[in-house]
Design a protein that fits this description.
- The protein is mainly alpha-helical.
- The chain has two domains: 3-70; 77-171, no CATH class.
- It is 68% helix and 0% strand.
- It is built from nine helices and no strands.
- Helix 5 crosses helix 9 (156-189).
């Protein structure tokens, strides 16, 4: 923890009269609640904590104010899901065009779509077609079978919603895991 953050936490504890001398858990709670606060927001956070009407309960003021400052880890997932749908649809169209013009090499679309190792596909410039996250999404959606059946979709919104749910689940899991790992590391260092 950097020095500025330590001063910030100490100022909060002192000004809100939170007793940490006899209760180290109170100090750790304050540290956990303000860990996501950016340095440029320290003054605004401090002011809002002081203005919070919690009848002298400093810890409650910090917890309530911290909720207002928490970043939305799910921000933009709808846009990401739409972009992924567009990419999958474009890839499926290109693959179907190829299979139609190369019938001698690809006699069965379903087998071909299911046998392809999507992690090895490359763009014309040599870069990989899919990132690890996109490969994970494709696998969760059904892989080649999903891509092949994408052309029969009448309503793309339910697929975009499905993609968004997968992205949301991954982000929530990563957030929970990173907090758990951080907590474990802090416990081992202490």
């Amino acid at each position: 923890m950097d020095n500025t953050r330590k001063i910030f936490i100490k100022s909060l504890i002192n000004s809100l009269k939170i007793e940490v001398e006899n209760n180290p858990f109170e100090y750790q709670t304050v540290v956990d609640e303000v860990e996501h606060i950016q340095e440029q927001d320290f003054m605004r956070f401090y002011s809002e904590c002081r203005a919070e009407n919690t009848f002298g309960d400093g810890m409650k003021a910090i917890i309530n104010t911290a909720k207002k400052f928490k970043p939305d880890i799910l921000a933009g997932t709808a846009e990401k899901a739409k972009n992924m749908y567009d990419k999958f649809y474009a890839q499926q169209s290109a693959m179907l065009d190829y299979s139609q013009t190369h019938r001698d090499q690809v006699p069965n679309d379903r087998e071909w779509f299911n046998k392809i190792d999507y992690s090895k596909l490359k763009n014309k410039d040599g870069s990989k077609t899919y990132t690890k996250q996109e490969l994970y999404l494709l696998k969760e959606l059904g892989g080649g079978e999903f891509l092949l059946n994408l052309r029969f979709t009448l309503n793309s919104s339910h697929i975009i919603t499905k993609i968004k749910k997968i992205i949301d689940e991954v982000l929530k899991t990563k957030s929970i895991e990173s907090k758990r790992v951080s907590k474990m590391l802090a416990d081992k260092v202490a």
